[in-house]
Amino acid sequence: MSGLGTKRKAIDNFFAPRNKKVALLDTAVTFQCSGEGLLRTNVPKETGVPGLVPHTDFVDRGEQQQILAFLNNPNKCTWRTDLKRRTMHFGGTYCLVPQRSAGPDQPKPEIVQAPPIPPELNWLVQRMVDAQIYKDDQRPQFCIVNEYTGNLGISAHTENFQFGEPVVGLSLSSPCPIRFHELAEPFDGSVRSGKAAKAQKTGRSVDVELPPRSLLVMTGQSRWNWQHEVARTAKGRGPGWKRVSLTFRYKP
Predict the structure, then answer these.
(1) 224-249 as b/e, with b when 16 or more CB fall inside 10 Å?
(2) Is the Cα torsion angle 21, 26, 32, 37 positive or negative in sign?
(3) Coil, strand or helix: which one is 24?
(4) Which long-range contacts does 232-238 make (Cβ < 8 Å, 24+ apart)?
(5) Fewer beta carbons under 10 A from the terminal one: N or C of the chain?
(6) Which residues of 136-148 are buried (b: 16+ CB within 10 A; e: fewer)?
(7) Are 63 and 236 in contact, with CB atoms under 8 Å apart?
(8) Measured in Å, how far apart are the chain's first and last C-alpha atoms?
(9) Confidence band, pLDDT 50/70/90 cuts, at residue 43
(10) How does pLDDT run across 115-128, given as a tens digit for each residue?
């Protein structure tokens, strides 16, 4: 009898739910009955952040390599290297930060006009429209590309409130967790100005694990009431770890 009890306890433990500290962006499989039998449907799992919708495998491996090859083509794209991480802008303007000078004449930041979103990314924007992420007459006009390597990251922030919703991020190359912080109220403060760090948080945070080739859509509370960040740490990142993100934004 003792052996049977031990076996039953082991089986019960096998089916017991496990506590998770992060939200994984895989999909749950459900089946629906129809006249033609069972239909398999992929349903995104809850992230714990209201308004945050993940789309896994939004691009395939070949399309990922196509995007990365385009971004790294010096004849078509230019990375800015004034920050610790490489970045690239499409649409609008950005501030180019000069290297600090040891002399008294410190060069001033330069405002640079970025090129529009290039034709090579039109198919990606169209796919987001076809998926009803963006409306056909409200396509994103702005895209910022960030490359994270080693222990690089970015502090907690919300996207500038001059942009509307959704804010959409495509994550390429290596997997990466994104930490979301709930705010007491919507707060529009940038990392560069230092105002983002002054946002009043509720103390609630959620880690969302982003697999390669996933698309993360922020609407509603996740867009306005939650900051997001990439931790500055090499922990959990193996040799050659690299994440490239493309963040699309629409300005009304």
Answers:
(1) bbbbbbbbeeeeebeeebebbbbbbb
(2) negative
(3) strand
(4) 232/151, 232/152, 232/153, 233/151, 233/153, 234/150, 234/151, 236/177, 237/150, 237/151, 237/174
(5) N
(6) eeeebbbbbbbbb
(7) no
(8) 71
(9) very low
(10) 999 999 999 999 99
Sheet holding 86-90, edge to edge: 52-55, 214-218, 167-173, 242-249, 142-149, 86-90
The per-residue pLDDT for range 4-26, each reduced to its tens digit, is 444 334 434 433 333 334 455 54
Sequence-ordered list of residues with C-beta below 8 angstroms from that of 14, at least 6 positions apart, any chain: none
Using only C-alpha atoms, what is the Rg of the chain? Answer: 21
Q: What is the pTM of this model?
A: 0.80
What b/e sequence results for 84-109 when a residue is b if at least 16 CB atoms lie within 10 Å of its CB, and e otherwise?
ebbbbbbbbebeeeeeeeeeeeeeee
CA–chain centroid gap for 6, Å, is: 45
Query: Which element (helix H / strand E) includes 30?
Result: strand 27-34
Residue 2: count other Cβ atoms within 10 Å of its Cβ.
6
Cα distance between residue 170 and residue 147, in whole Å: 12
Question: Would you say 64 and 172 are in contact if contact means Cβ atoms under 8 Å apart?
Answer: yes
Examine residue 109 and say whether the peptide bond preceding it is cis (omega within 30 degrees of 0).
no
Count of residues in the chain: 252
Q: From its phi and psi, is residue 191 left (phi > 0), alpha (psi between -120 and 50) or beta? A: alpha
Contact 108, 98 (CB under 8 A): yes
Give the strands of the sheet with 176-183, arranged side by side. Answer: 22-24, 201-210, 176-183, 226-230, 154-157
